[in-house]
Amino acid sequence: MTATRLVFLGPPGAGKGTQADLVADSLGIPHISTGDILREAMEKKTDLGGRAGRYVEGGDLVPDEIVLSLVEERTGREDCAGGFVLDGFPRTVAQAEGLDGILAERGEALDAVILLDVGDEAIISRLAQRRVCPACGALYSLDGDPPRQDGVCDKCGARLEARVDDDPATVKKRLEVYRRDTLPVVEYYESEGLLRRVGGEGDVEGVFSSILEVLKTVKR
Ligand code: AP5
Fold it and tell me: Is 44 a catalytic site residue?
């Protein structure tokens, strides 16, 4: 079996989680979101959650060594033998270099990095409309993809919530952090010849089709 190892990059709210999920499902490989792993650890009040909580809530990046060790562990599990889709990682050049090192030690490498391009106006509007299910992780958009019953998850019936870091001041901070720390990661992958840019402002299905087109051109 040929493994497929992908990274999704893009600003907060670009649709990385939405698209990474669709791509991972279509390829039959795990979708690994560092944000989801950190939020779950916070919810369960684990040691990791305790160390990460104040950074996530404030819109800051969790220290590289914490995130790198969780990604090393997660991508080393058996279900990643056929590859994986990373979402929200790497976010700093140190994380990108660390990931290259982890994969090189296993004789592996990334196949492509998909950058979702979305402007600030769409991001701010999407994040204000986002609701998540704290129980099963399902994602909704109040204007684009609302739940059938107001405030209630279609899949498991739990009460939906806004994410703790989706308030306007924290979104502004996350955008600043993205520009400062993550745009250099875009340049890093561009110079490695791995970067593929995809417009992320169309509807979910349209963006997904564009990604599938791009993936056809990726050598694996
Ligand atoms: P993380 O969870 O990774 O958040 P993020 O990168 O800010 O991205 P989001 O999850 O907000 O958005 P997304 O791009 O996944 O968009 P989504 O599909 O949800 O990280 C959160 C925090 O964790 C960080 O701030 C940091 O503290 C920490 N962290 C995580 N990883 C880290 C790392 N590697 N290093 C250090 N710290 C780390 O879509 C957004 C909304 O838009 C949804 O409502 C969705 O339904 C809607 N939508 C999606 N696509 C479309 C579309 N095409 N049209 C209209 N609406 C759409």
Answer: no
Would residue 20 count as lying in a domain?
Answer: yes
- Cα three-residue angle 35-97-217, rounded to 5 degrees: 80
Written as six digits, the tokens of 115 are 């950058």
User: Beta-carbon neighbour count of residue 125 at 10 Å?
Assistant: 14
Q: Does 220 map to a domain?
A: no
For residue 183, tell me if it sits in a domain: yes
Q: Tell me the pLDDT tens digit for each residue of 13-41.
A: 999 999 999 999 999 999 999 999 999 99
Nearest by Cα to 68 from 47, 39, 84, 48: 48
Output the domain CATH number for residue 69. Answer: 3.40.50.300
145 CA closest ligand 1 atom index:
46
- Catalytic: 130? yes
Domain total of the chain:
1
Ligand 1 pocket test: which of 16, 37, 180, 181 has the largest number of ligand atoms within 8 Å of its C-beta?
16
Quickly list DSSP for 10-78.
Answer: -STTSSHHHHHHHHHHHHT--EEEHHHHHHHHHHTT-HHHHHHHHHHHHTPPPPHHHHHHHHHHHHTSG
Where does the pLDDT of residue 219 fall: very low under 50, low under 70, confident under 90, or very high at 90 and above? confident
pLDDT digits (tens, 9 = 90+) for 135-172: 998 999 998 899 999 999 999 999 999 999 999 999 99
Q: What is the pTM of this model?
A: 0.95
pLDDT band at 2 (very low <50, low <70, confident <90, very high): confident
Nearest atom in ligand 1 to 18's CA: 18
